[in-house]
Amino acid sequence: MVYEIKNQLYKINTYGAGNPIYVEASTKGELFEYVANRVIQGDIIVSVVAVYPDGTTPKIPVLTDKNYKAIYKELVRKAKNKETMLSLDFKSKQAKDAFVKSIWEEFGDIPIDSAENILEDFYLWPKDTYRIDIWHWFDENYSGGVAGLLMEC
Fold it and tell me: Which pTM does this prediction carry?
């Protein structure tokens, strides 16, 4: 399966899939958007590598675990509000959990005042949103709830 954008060819290996997916992209942003859509469809991405003109691939992947945060940000960018974000149709619990967990990890870096309100905008939540209100969203959208996120991260 080739999803044509243009220029660089990438090979996407997914967990449990027999054959890799090939995609052409002109920018990493386009590649991230394509991979984000595959994640929504339920694919568990193992690696993404560039394919050289001679058909060989480098040993270093194009996307690593750190890059997946950028992919999940792309998903959030598509979501204009909480309802849209919640309606992202993840085909697997693991994909949705990975998406929510990546946002939770970033939430740990957001400063909070003494009243427990966030001091800057964070994804869908404006500055001065009460921390516990945001936790409710995580609790409802992560299979292990906030308790699971606190234990895992």
Answer: 0.55
Q: Residue 2 — pLDDT band, cuts 50, 70, 90? A: very low
Rounded CA-CA distance 57/9 in Å is: 10
SS3 letters for 73-136?
HHHHHHCCCHHHHHCCCCCCHHHHHHHHHHHHHHHCCCCECCCCEECCCECCECCCCEHHHHHH
Residues 6+ apart with CB under 8 A from 35: 12, 45, 48, 63, 71
Claim to verify: residue 97 and residue 145 sit in the same structural domain: yes
Q: At what angle do helices 131-141 and 145-152 cross, to 10 degrees?
A: 100
Q: Is the pLDDT of residue 62 over 60?
A: yes
> Domains in the chain: how many in total?
2
Is position 79 within any domain?
Answer: no
